[in-house]
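Researcher: Before we compare anything, I want clean individual predictions. No alignment, no superposition, just each chain on its own. First chain goes here; please echo the sequence and then give the C-alpha cells.
Model: Echoing the first chain and its structure:
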Amino acid sequence: MVVDPGVGTLRRPILAEAAGQYFVAPDNGVLSMLYAREKHKVRAVTAEKFFLKPVSDTFHGRDVFAPTAAHLAKGTPVARFGKPIADYCRLEFYKPVRTGKRVWKGAILKVDRFGNLITNFHIAEFPALRTRAFAMTAGQREITALARTFGEQSLGELFLLVGSSGYLEVAANQASAAKMAGAAVGAPVQLEIY
C-alpha cells in the first residue's frame, strides 16, 4: 500500500500481519482501520538488502514497498525484514467521538464514484439505528431514514445505507449524495439517536 505523502522523509516502511494476510506500507497511519479491527503484528522493514538500489527520495513504491512485497510473496520469512515494533502510527480518524449523551461526531472517509458518502460510523457500533429514530447531519443536510437498498427510497431522496463493509453511507437513489449534501472527504458528520 502506497498512500504516502511522507515519501522521502524519515517515516519508516512497515510490514503488518493481520487476518492471515500481509500488508507492506508506510508507517503513517494508513493501516489504522486494520489495526482497530484485527489482531495484528507490525515490523519495521529495516533490511535494505531487499530494496532496489539506489532508493529514490520520491518513489518508495517502486524502490522499497514493491520489492519488499515481492520478496515476501516469494517466501522470504517475515522475520528477515526487521524486528517487531509497538510504536507504529495509529490514527483515530476512523472512529466517531461521543460528544453528548446520544450524540457522536464523525467524518466522511470516502466519496465513491456514484457520490455516496462513506462515513466512519460502523453499524456494529450503532445497531440502534435499525430500530430507533435518528438524525445524521452531513454537509448542509439532515438524514433521518435508513434503507436496506437504494430502491426502497424515492428518487433523489437522501438516506442512510449500510454499505458492503458495514459503514454507514449517506446515499441517494439515482443521485449524488455528495452534491446534494455539499460534503466531501473529511467533512464532519454528526449522529444523534433519539
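Researcher: Okay. Second chain, same rules.
Model: Second chain and its structure:
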Amino acid sequence: MLLTKKSDGWYATICLEDPTVPVFNPDEIVPTWENTLGMDAVLHEQDYLATSEGTKLPSLKSFRKSEKRLAKVSRCKEKKPKGSKSRRRLAKRQGREHQRIARARIDHSFKTAHALVRTGKKVFVHEDLNLKALSKRNKAKQDEDGKFLPNGQAAKSGLNKSWNDAAFGQFFEILEYIAGKAPGVGDCS
C-alpha cells in the first residue's frame, strides 16, 4: 500500500495480484507502411501532433490557459506575511491550480493516445526528442569587455514554457502504455 499526499488530500494506492489472471503476451508485429503511424511533435498555433497520414491533433495548453489565474493567486500569496493562515490558505489554492493543470494534461494525453490507437494502426513511431535540451536556457554570451550580449533567451523562454506545457515525454509514455494494452498493437518507438 502506498500513501500519497496531494494538494486536495491523501490518496491510497493498493496493488493486488491475482494468480488466476492470464499473462498478456502480445503478438510479434512486423511493421509495414500500412500498419505504421508516424508522429511529429508540432507545437505550432493550436496543433499538438502531426501524423504521417496528414492529420493534426489539437493541443490543450493547460498551463497557458491557467497562467493568469495562477499568477493572481501567487501575487496574493506573496503579499501575505510568511507563516500566516491566509498565506497557507493561498498556498493550498495555488497547489490546487497546479494540480488542475497537471490533471488536464494527463487527461489530454490519455484521450489523444486512445484516439491514435483507435486509428487501427499497429506500430507507432515518434521522433526521438531530447526534451531536456529543448527546455534548457541559452548560454550567456560576453564580449571582450565583459558585457553580456543578447543571446535570444527572452524568445527562448516562451518556447521552453510551451515545450513543458505540451508534456511530450509524459504523452509518449502514456501512448506506449495504451498501445501495449490494446489487442494486436505493437510497441511504440
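Researcher: What stands out in the second chain?
Model: Residues 2-128+152-181 form one domain. Additionally, The mean pLDDT is 87.
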